[in-house]
């Protein structure tokens, strides 16, 4: 698949599958997945997944006790460990190579974003 899927229905199905896989991987690796997850195209070669309510009970306890910096360090390490699995899931579902996966978290809002930067396809590179 070179660019975004041609039909909205196909695009929605692929994005929903990616959201479901992200929730599954998170739940499998942390014991709890986010309660809400939405994935959207953010340009020709970028996909963004926003997750809500991602913190485990122990992470919320740390946050409420002022342990935000330690929590973010631990989650950053976990995000790094999961990046390859997220990348492989996105590549399998989208049938596109992923150049990198970036993750950002906001503990105060209990929201996170996974940004999938897709490798430029031959077609998109010509049009850039």
Poorly predicted residue ranges: none
Strand order of the largest sheet: 1-2-4-3
CATH topology: Muramoyl-pentapeptide Carboxypeptidase, domain 2
Structural class: alpha+beta
Summary tags:
four-stranded antiparallel sheet, alpha+beta, single chain, 128 residues, 4 strands, Muramoyl-pentapeptide Carboxypeptidase, domain 2
Report on the architecture of this protein.
- The chain is of the alpha+beta class.
- The chain has a single domain, classed as Muramoyl-pentapeptide Carboxypeptidase, domain 2 (2-Layer Sandwich).
- The chain has a four-stranded antiparallel beta sheet with strand order 1-2-4-3, with helices on one face.
- Helix 1 crosses helix 3.
- The mean pLDDT is 89.
């Amino acid at each position: 698949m070179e660019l975004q899927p041609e039909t909205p229905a196909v695009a929605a199905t692929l994005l929903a599958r990616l959201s479901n896989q992200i929730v599954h991987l998170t739940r499998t690796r942390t014991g709890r997945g986010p309660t809400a997850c939405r994935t959207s195209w953010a340009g020709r070669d970028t996909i963004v997944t926003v997750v809500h309510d991602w913190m485990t009970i122990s992470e919320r306890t740390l946050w409420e006790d002022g342990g935000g910096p330690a929590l973010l360090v631990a989650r950053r390490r976990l995000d790094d460990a999961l990046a390859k699995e997220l990348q492989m899931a996105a590549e399998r579902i989208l049938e596109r190579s992923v150049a990198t996966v970036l993750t950002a978290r906001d503990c105060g809002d209990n929201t996170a974003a996974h940004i999938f930067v897709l490798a430029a396809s031959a077609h998109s590179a010509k049009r850039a």
